[in-house]
Amino acid sequence: MKEFVQYMPTKVVFGRDTEKETGRLVKESGASRVLVIYGGGSAVRSGLLFRVEESLKEYGIVYEELSGVKPNPGLSLAREGVKKASSFGADLILAVGGGSVIDTAKAAALGAANPGTDIWEFWMGRAQTVKALPVGVVLTIPAAGSEMSDSAVLTDEDTKKKAGYNSDIVRPRFAVLNPELAYTLPKYQLACGIVDILMHTLERYFTPVAGNELTDELAEGLMRTVIRNGKKAYENQEDYDAMSELTWCASLSHNGLTGLGRPKDFACHKLGHELSGRFDEAHGATLSAVWGSWAKYVYQMDLDRFVRYGKQVWNIETEDKEEAALASIEQTEQFFRSLNMPVCLGELSIGVQTEGVLKSLAEYATKKDTVRLGCFKELTAQDAYEIYKEANHR
Ligand code: NZQ
Ligand code: ZN
């Protein structure tokens, strides 16, 4: 087991109607002036925003709103969030939405606490800070796990660069998780979320460090739970128990728990971010589109790991290791297909890409071959290109 630091400061309030506790949670955090951030309107249409704001009023919390966050959230709206939080004198940023809204809230929280530094400087690693306003979350979609994570992902609309900022200081102070809020999700978004939840643990599972018994068991249990309940929730979106399991899995899959004691890989996330940044494809869909090709490219680095994954997660008992490993990849892709998720670029809305585009995606992802992606196998620009090529059309 590798040395690790575990920090999970988010208070989770889980269950039906929990959004009505938002005001109390804000007050408990010591805040009284809140910038409420939300997306394109689903929270208004469902009545959620109204209920949240009623709860704020009940506790004497004053607030302003910032709306219009889009999936693959952009830097410009995040900068607007910084301005609004500063001019209003916000002492807490409240996200009512999914990963995109939460990440915009985290950006506003960072920017408002560090006047004078443009937020993108933090994303590019050119500025450091230990300060951010507290962030609270009312979650509407089990997916990105940003409600407990240390990360925030933004896209610079001018350069099309999608990048993450990682620091414990942006982990939310509280997260309200009401599984019923996900009943109104479009099926496609639900499926994207299920893929993302599974991927957050897969990307922590296939790593070079062995000897993490508990972490392995937690990871395998979480993956089995996501698969079982993902199928149920996809079939019947109002299955409260299934949506509950999925919601809790989403938060635990990306708060660090399923990767303690070993490094993260996250190569598929990097490959996916290039596709989202450039073509505005949904995050989860980019992951299912590349994972199988990545897995087939790297599985021989540690055949036993894939065999174990197949056995523990998919009940594959095949004696032949090579066959068992390939079967585990096939099963995973079948699962993605069962959710109508793409398993190649050709099945994304962008369709099959030219060799030139694939090369430039690989170059961009690896910063012209100066950085390596992942650690299960450290990918060069050539490796990334080979994976994109394999993923192009299958
Ligand atoms: O904007 P509205 O109208 O709310 O619609 C949203 C949006 O169109 C809709 N939606 C959300 N909840 C709904 C709903 N529609 C009806 N009913 C509901 N209850 O769903 C769409 C997608 O929302 P989004 O917030 O983009 O989803 P998700 O949570 O999947 O977030 C994706 C973003 O998070 C980033 C991704 O890269 C992507 O930008 N990630 C953030 C991470 C983090 N901060 O830790 C980690 C992840 O790996 C990921 O990179
Ligand atoms: Zn993700």
Keywords:
single chain, 394 residues, alpha/beta, Rossmann fold, Dehydroquinate synthase-like, alpha domain, 2 domains, six-stranded parallel beta sheet, two-stranded antiparallel sheet, 8 strands, 11% strand, globular, binds 5,6-dihydroxy-NADP, binds zinc ion
Give the CATH level 1 class of the largest domain: Mainly Alpha
Total domains: 2
Bound molecules: 5,6-dihydroxy-NADP, zinc ion
CATH topology of the largest domain: Dehydroquinate synthase-like, alpha domain
**Helical segment tally?**
15
Helix proportion of residues, in percent? 40-55%
Strand content: 5-15%
Mean pLDDT: 97
Task: Reconstruct the topology from this structure.
Blueprint: E1 11-14, H1 22-28, E2 33-38, H2 42-45, H3 48-58, E3 62-66, H4 75-88, E4 92-97, H5 99-113, H6 119-123, E5 135-139, E6 151-156, E7 161-166, E8 174-177, H7 187-205, H8 213-235, H9 240-253, H10 267-279, H11 283-298, H12 303-314, H13 321-338, H14 355-365, H15 381-392
Helix pairs in contact: 1-3, 4-5, 7-8, 7-9, 7-11, 8-9, 8-12, 10-11, 10-14, 11-13, 11-15, 12-13, 14-15
The site of 5,6-dihydroxy-NADP has 35 residues, from helix 2, helix 5, strand 6 and helix 7.
